[in-house]
Design a protein that fits this description.
alpha/beta, Aspartate Aminotransferase, domain 1, Aspartate Aminotransferase, domain 2, 2 domains, 7-stranded mixed sheet, 4-stranded mixed sheet, 13 helices, 17 strands, globular, binds pyridoxal-5'-phosphate
Length: 395
């Protein structure tokens, strides 16, 4: 329904295509518009609202944080929540240090800088190149965009950061060749490539690149901004492979909807960073850090992760059923945990629009893939409702 004109501003920069709906409330997996219509949110704010909308856990954490009077202090001084969050994340990742920032793209920028400094200290100034994968998406800033394989996003802003090589992850020999001991500082990998259409990379791939990067003293940077923190059914998406990367970037669900990102890294890399080498005003402030800790205590709980896996399996099975009823039209169902993509043989934008009319929010991943990213607290009943709507959309 049309939102009241006074509430629809034309003053927002037109870089997003927004439907004519005004959301005024959120309750769990549902968003409610100005006319009271309810929508199942299978986007989670693009992977952010892991605990759903209006989560009492997030609300209580914000209230407790506000009770201290400390929303922001600055990284010139210590506050307790950032330290506690760093302890939690380093313990869960097996890495040693955390740097907090405000978004996924910023976490990638940090990872690029940290790994370059580390690699150049080992191999000299020529060891600065970054290898990224075909189909990658790492963000919209000049460094993160330079390692993003989306020509349409890149070209208007070129020249970007130089020194990036793209390689096809399905061609292991090419990946091996691209990783140069003398010239490569870092390899960037999303364990599940999100924006290109939900493409999980195999454990065999992760194991192979771990071995090559270790041998050649190249930082293995995992971008878990979208697939990490419970989304894939494990705390980190790479866990099934058993590898230990050098750097992990996280963001989206970290702050419970408040903006936050983090770079986790090994002591070896952290050891190259001195006071003044990097910084940000807001990153890791006490309020957002205490909210993040509350979110991660829930999301990191083994029984919560078990539930994500079993609900994910249920969602996957229902999507397979939707696909089986339409051979040829749905090319592939891909995903794990609660990140799924339906690759269609047609453009998905009209389907996303039809789903919206029927009360289901979906987000495309590239032109032909419908992506489903429900809050991790979604129920099986809500999964049933969403897949029933999807069936109707495709009818
Ligand atoms: N990396 C991945 C894998 C992402 O999916 C995204 C955003 O979608 C980013 C990085 C950038 O995150 P942000 O939009 O918070 O800058």
């Amino acid at each position: 329904m049309t939102a009241p004109a006074a509430q629809q501003s034309d003053r927002l920069l037109g870089v997003y295509r927004m439907p004519d709906i005004l959301f005024v409330r959120g309750e769990g997996v549902e968003l409610i518009d100005a006319d009271g219509k309810r929508y199942l949110d299978f986007t989670s704010g693009i992977g952010v609202n892991a605990l759903g909308h209006g989560s009492p856990i997030v609300r209580r954490a914000i209230e407790r944080g506000l009770d201290t009077g400390l929303i922001h202090v600055s990284n010139l001084f210590r506050t307790a929540p950032a330290g506690a969050l760093a302890e939690f994340l380093t313990e869960r990742s097996g890495l040693d240090r955390a740097f907090f920032c405000n978004s996924g793209a910023e976490s990638i920028e940090g990872a690029l800088k940290f790994s370059r400094k580390w690699a150049k200290a080992r191999g000299g100034p020529e060891k600065h190149r970054v290898v990224a994968l075909k189909g990658s998406f790492h963000g919209r800033l000049f460094g993160s965009l330079a390692v993003t394989d989306r020509p349409g996003y890149r070209e208007p802003y070129e020249p970007l950061m130089p020194g990036v090589d793209f390689v096809d992850p399905s061609d292991l020999a090419a990946v091996d060749r691209a990783l140069s001991r003398e010239r490569t500082a870092a390899l960037l990998v999303e364990p599940i490539q999100g924006e290109v259409g939900v493409r999980p990379l195999s454990s065999a791939f992760l194991e192979a690149v771990r071995e090559w990067t270790r041998e050649r003293e190249i930082a293995l940077v995992l971008d878990e901004v979208q697939c990490g923190l419970g989304r894939a059914g494990t705390f980190f998406a790479h866990e099934p492979s058993g590898i230990r990367p050098d750097v992990i970037c996280i963001a989206k669900p970290l702050g419970g909807g408040l903006p936050m990102g983090a770079v986790l890294m090994s002591e070896d890399i952290a050891g190259q960073l001195q006071p003044g080498d990097h910084g940000t005003t807001f990153g890791g402030g006490p309020l957002v850090s205490s909210v993040a800790l509350a979110v991660l205590r829930v999301v990191g709980d083994p029984s919560f992760l078990d539930a994500v896996r079993s609900k994910g399996a249920a969602l996957g099975a229902r999507l397979e059923r939707v696909a089986a009823a339409r051979p040829g039209r749905i090319r592939e169902v891909r995903g794990r945990g609660l990140i799924w993509g339906l690759e269609m043989s047609e453009p998905v934008a009209p389907l996303v629009g039809r789903a919206l009319d029927l009360g289901l929010l979906l987000v495309p991943a590239g032109p032909n893939v419908l992506r489903l990213l429900p809050p991790l607290v979604v129920s099986e009943g809500e999964i049933d409702r969403a897949t029933a709507i999807l069936d109707e959309v495709l009818a």
